[in-house]
Design brief:
This protein is an alpha+beta fold. Helices cover 42% and strands 13% of the residues. It folds into 2 domains: 203 residues, D-Maltodextrin-Binding Protein, domain 2; 194 residues, D-Maltodextrin-Binding Protein, domain 2, CATH 3.40.190.10. Helix 9 crosses helix 10.
Length: 423
């Protein structure tokens, strides 16, 4: 049996905070142990660290954080996997999970014993905590894409935010009939797979995927051809800014911020840039957002980015580390950070918080928009060779966008052949 941490329960009742579902293990079996955490530098994780006192008091566990800047994080994790022994808990980005699988230990039994509600995590985030059928980590940080739009320009054109990609074209043309702005800013150029992050949603919406169950490329199917033709067609439709064939993500963002485009599909954390007076010509009143459009007749999707936290294979304090993970991934901790008036941390990976009325009131409904997409988004797997795979795919998309090739089927067939050779 466990008992609810009294300090947390009292704090919840006094300050109106959501009560923790996490409960400290009865008897403080890990009293005196230290959990060393290796985390990517993030204001969200620093906010967690600032709230450790109640956990440490309830469990007797000391928690020590070390932060590494994102550009150095993969190397730090690889070093820990090879040398081992320095850290008990690590944060790992979704694209690295497979290549670092020897770093993390299965935690299914411990997490089940704590009663963690795994169903509260969207499938697109939760899948990255599973490896070879075992739970090896829990989502703590996650990003989604939203469709940002100019409220004033859509109102002037007499249109509403599109719910399908087909409506997006109609909306874009209506806006262009009443303003000098382009309908939508999109990335087509090559840089870190950025042009795939919108294309993937069209691929899923058309019923396609990157690989089949056996790992064979299938993006050159009829669904993949349809998705690619649709994405490239926005150039021919002239609803994107001039020069878009070489746009990377930041170019698209800048076009929107400068008032040159009326719509922009991009990560939700970019919102702060879009209305920052030092970076943008736009005000908060001008910028709206909604879930990404869907292919007509299909579910909404969103490309996601997920960070999981797991317990290391070499940890001597696995029980204490799992206890810490139970606290770290409680939705009440996440909500406390989201509602802190002194913070501007938007990230949520629990559906209960994404759909929470007070959270949405504070953030203008952005989390509900994310929940609308995440409810039916399955996400994707990233294997060891993802950087090479992404380069091949983004090159194919970029070449078609720039007019270097016009045969979509041939371009995707060649990409599939090249990818099959390295898998």
């Amino acid at each position: 049996m466990k008992h609810l941490t009294s300090a947390i329960a009292i704090a919840a009742s006094l300050f109106g905070a959501q009560a923790f579902a996490w409960e400290a293990t009865e008897g403080r079996p890990f009293d005196g142990q230290t959990v060393n955490v290796l985390a990517v530098k993030s204001s969200q994780f620093e906010a967690h660290e600032a709230r450790l006192a109640e956990f440490e008091e309830a469990t007797g566990i000391d928690v020590v954080y070390d932060y590494v800047p994102f550009p150095n994080m993969k190397e730090a994790l690889t070093t820990e996997m090879v040398a081992g022994g320095d850290y008990d808990v690590v944060s790992v980005m979704d694209q690295w999970v497979t290549s670092l699988q020897m770093l993390m230990a299965p935690i299914g039994a411990e997490i089940e014993a704590q009663g963690t509600d795994l169903s509260d995590f969207p499938a697109a985030h939760m899948r990255h905590g599973m490896l070879n059928g075992e739970l090896i980590g829990l989502p703590v940080r996650g990003h989604v894409q939203l469709l940002f739009y100019r409220k004033d320009l859509l109102d002037a054109a007499g249109v509403t935010p599109p719910t399908t990609w087909e409506e997006m074209v109609t909306t874009a043309k209506a806006i262009q009939d009443s303003t000098d702005a382009a309908g939508i800013a999109l990335p087509y150029g090559k840089l870190n797979g950025q042009n795939l992050m919108v294309w993937m949603n069209l691929l899923w919406g058309n019923g396609g995927d990157l690989f089949d169950a056996d790992g064979n490329p299938v993006f050159n199917s009829a669904a993949g051809v349809a998705a690619t033709e649709t994405y490239i067609s926005y150039l021919a439709e002239e609803i994107v800014p001039a020069g878009s064939a070489v746009f990377v993500e930041q170019d698209a963002v800048n076009s929107f911020k400068q008032g040159n485009s009326a719509m922009l599909p991009v990560w939700w954390w970019v919102r702060s840039q879009l209305t920052d007076p030092e970076q943008s010509t736009l005000t908060a009143d001008q910028v709206g957002f909604t879930a990404l459009p869907a292919v007509d007749g299909a579910d909404r999707t969103t490309f996601t980015n997920t960070w999981i936290f797991g317990v290391t294979q070499e940890s001597d304090n696995k029980g204490a580390a799992a206890e810490f993970l139970g606290w770290l991934t409680d939705p009440a901790l996440e909500r406390d950070v989201l509602m802190d008036p002194d913070l501007s941390e938007v990230v949520a990976v629990h559906m209960s918080n994404l759909t929470d009325a007070e959270v949405n009131a504070r953030w203008g409904g952005m989390h509900q928009a994310a929940a609308d997409a995440l409810a039916t988004a399955e996400g994707m797997e990233f294997g060891d060779n993802w950087p090479r795979i992404a380069l091949i795919l983004e090159t194919a998309i970029s070449s078609l966008a720039s007019g270097e090739g016009t045969d979509v089927q041939a371009a995707l067939d060649k990409a599939a052949e090249d990818i099959a050779a390295i898998r």
